[in-house]
Amino acid sequence: MPSTEPNHRGVSLLKRLFHGATLTALVVVVSGFSTAQSKSKPVAQNPGASTSFASGISLGAIDYAQRTVDCTITQRRRFLGPTGVPVTVREEVKVDADGTDAPPYELTYLGVEGEQPGSPLWQQWAQNYTRFASLYHQHGGFRVRNLPAAQSNYTVHNFGQITRAGRSACRIVVLPNRFDKAVWLVDVDATTFLPLYAAEYDSQLRLLSEVEVVTFSTAVQLTNPRTPSMTVTPYQDFAAAEQAIGGKGLVEPQTGPLSEYVLSRIHGTDNPLNGRHSMVLTYTDGIDECFVIESPGVPEYFAGLPSQIGSGLDDASGNHTIARYRDPSMSVLLFWYDGVGFQIAGRGSLRRLDEFAKTIYAKAVTGR
Amino acid sequence: MTTSEGPGKPQSPLTPACRAFLRNGMAEDDHASGCAFCSARLGARRKLGEWLAQPIAPPAELESAAFLDSIKTRIVDRAEASALGQLLDQAMPVASPAALERAFPVDLLDSAVGTSAVGDPTGDLVGSVGELGWARVRQRVLQQMHADRSRHLARFRMIAVFGVAAAAILCSILVSEGTRRPPSIVFTDVSSVPSLEFSPMAVLRHGTDH
Questions:
Q1: Residues near A180 by Cβ (< 8 Å), separated by ≥ 6?
Q2: Nearest-CA neighbor of A247 among A302, A298, A303?
Q3: Does A89 touch chain B (CB under 8 A)?
Q4: A361 interface with B at CB cutoff 8 Å
Q5: Which residue is closest to B203 within chain A, CA to CA?
Q6: Which is nearest to B198 in space by CA: A144, A25, A268?
Q7: Which of A102, A213, A362, B85 is the most exposed place for a label (fewest CB within 10 A)?
Q8: Contact A128 B207 (CB under 8 A)
Q9: Considering CB atoms only, which of A298, A320, A331 is closest to B184?
Q10: Does the ipTM exceed 0.85?
């Protein structure tokens, strides 16, 4: 049997090369990008300045800050709009930290940069924020979602002190231990350890998302705490969710292909438009997230297609089909079986979602 | 003590009292002290009792098998030498094994039956059949042996083949019943994000789900 030791050394070497190249490229690219896009230009300070703050930046410190620090911030969130044109939306976030990982918050849509209030695009994004503000705040941007998992799956590299939003900050790069995940560039506030800037890059250094704080304050007063537009009911485990949502055919996924991901949240959603219930399982590796959404009682996703192959039915050769959409920013896999629609969604580079979806489908078909 | 029991007969020394004494187990009483005969019997009884109370070990010769065999041999020899032994020897003589062999009915071989079965007992048996004949007989015997052996091997092979086939069929039945073929799953790539009620990644990337 051939020795696997050379393979391990080769992989380790590749990892180191990748990390080194990524770090170097990130510093170059981000410095230029931030200068071009941001009005509050970061000013690089003397790298020889005090490093006591820089050396204290860790994922644990960021996680602690997210749970305990109140803040009122105005920030810009950039999307790759539906037409492929980047859109920068300004929003105000107020967080009343209570020590938990889901404190009360308020997210207010302020407008689209470069758009007059009331314009069609402005109104469209107002509607988007009405529906999806919770999703933007909880799942968009950089956040430590599971500290032990984050510490085992990512490494933090300090790149010195800068100034962001008029505050002293430290620039860090959060690198994943695996190639198929995003790389994060984060400017962390020196005083509170909250992120003031977060940019997500894929392995090809394409910018996938960006959130930039414009103004920052540690005072907070919530007037209208945010509630999701859909009724969201958290559950302790899969069995409780299955019993509450009902409907046969629900499958409890096994994170075999995504071994470093843990189930962070199970909740049920009720669509106010049609009253349909869905089970949403959120998995995280500490920072990254992927979702499994199971919707019982939905019609087959591809029933209207002219193709005779259904997503949940055997074709002439006995195959089951998963529809897959993938671009650099996201992966969405869909299939339908026995009256339940399944959606597996995650980052575009996480190709292991394919195998993950296959295991869920196989379990739905075989029942085990 | 003597008692007169009749003319010409010798007188018994036992009196009725003596007989009663003996009959009653020679219990010590006034009669024994007054009768010399009974008193002597009582004294002998005491002495004998003392001797009987001390067990005597038998002689070592009695435990020797050779000693006992010599006694038995001596008894047999004396019986053979006696008048009864001589009479039995004459009436029932014992024949030795050598004598039995010499008593084989050789005359039977000279008869027609013996000649046809065995042939001339005084002739050369090999020469009468011929070397070619004996070679053929030998060859036929060897062929028969090989044929039997090959039949045995063929039968064994047939049994083995059937056994293996039966085992294979049984195993395939058992395995197929216990396992299911995993479903075949294929991926179909689509060019745009499917329109869904809720698509979190599409919302996070594009701000909306359509």
A1: A203, A349, A350, A351, A352
A2: A298
A3: yes
A4: yes
A5: A132
A6: A268
A7: A102
A8: yes
A9: A320
A10: no
Residue in B with minimal Cα distance to A329: B205
Question: Which B residues in the span 161-200 are in contact with A, Cβ-Cβ below 8 Å?
Answer: 180, 182-194, 196-200
Q: Which residues of A touch B181 (CB under 8 A)?
A: none
Which pTM value belongs to this model? 0.62
pLDDT values of chain A reduced to their tens digit, one per residue, 368 residues: 344 444 555 556 655 555 556 555 655 555 444 443 333 434 333 333 333 344 568 999 999 999 999 999 999 999 987 677 889 999 999 999 999 988 999 999 999 999 999 999 999 999 999 988 989 999 999 999 999 999 999 999 999 999 999 999 999 999 999 989 999 999 999 999 999 999 999 988 899 999 999 999 998 888 877 666 667 888 998 999 988 887 678 999 988 899 999 999 999 988 767 777 899 999 999 999 999 999 988 877 766 555 544 444 445 455 688 999 999 899 999 999 888 999 999 998 999 999 999 999 999 988 76
Distance, CA of A357 to CA of A281 (rounded, Å):
13
Rounded to the nearest 10 degrees, the angle between the axes of helix B36-53 and helix B16-23 is: 20
CA distances, B125 to each of A132, B112, B129, B131, B157 (Å): 119, 17, 7, 11, 43
Measure the CA–CA gap between A257 and A352, rounded to whole angstroms. Answer: 6
Q: Do B198 and A293 touch (CB under 8 A)?
A: yes
Label residues B117-156 b or e (16+ Cβ within 10 Å = b): eeeeeeeeeeeeeeeeeeeeeeeeeeeeeeeeeeeeeeee
Contact present, A216 and A73 (Cβ < 8 Å)? yes
Nearest CB to A321; choose among B186, B206, B207: B186
Long-range CB contact pairs, A97-102, < 8 A, 24+: A97/A66, A97/A67, A97/A68, A97/A69, A97/A70, A97/A71, A98/A67, A99/A67, A99/A68, A100/A67, A101/A66, A101/A67, A101/A145, A102/A138
Residues of B in Cβ contact (< 8 Å) with A317: 184
For an interface test with B, which of A265, A343, A353, A361 has the most B Cβ atoms less than 10 Å from its Cβ? A343
- Selected for mutation to probe chain B from A291, A330, A342, A361 (highest B CB count within 10 Å) is A330
Contact state of B180 with A366 under an 8 Å Cβ cutoff: yes
